[in-house]
Design a protein that fits this description.
This protein has 4 helices and 3 strands. With about 100 residues, it is α+β, with helices and mostly antiparallel strands. It has one domain (about 1-95): Winged helix-like DNA-binding domain superfamily/Winged helix DNA-binding domain (Arc Repressor Mutant, subunit A, Orthogonal Bundle).
């Protein structure tokens, strides 16, 4: 979800990522920063994100995260896996399997 959010919106800071996920999920996803920031660090360590310090619209210093080429490739793989799983679930719900 983080990779897709950054793919859609471009570079964002952690709070903006969490806010966007909450918005598009109608409030069903409410990530706390204690969960999100370690995940962002792991994604950055894996080379999927690149973080840079910048100033927010509120004139605060924050780390902005952007997808790397490796992150875009990983997102494409995860989308394919999700599409396969969703197709299986739909087939099960229709009684085809």
């Amino acid at each position: 979800m983080v990779l897709q959010t950054l793919n859609s919106l471009g570079p964002q800071h952690g709070y903006a990522i969490a806010a966007r996920l909450g918005q598009v999920s109608g409030g069903a996803l409410q990530l706390n920063m204690g969960t999100l920031y370690p995940a962002l660090m792991r994604l950055e360590q894996r080379g999927l994100l690149r973080g840079n310090w910048a100033i927010t619209d509120n004139n605060r210093r924050a780390r902005f995260y952007a997808l790397t080429a490796a992150g875009r490739r990983e997102l494409a793989k995860e989308r394919q896996a999700w599409d396969r799983m969703a197709a299986i679930i739909h087939a099960l719900l229709r009684g085809e399997i």
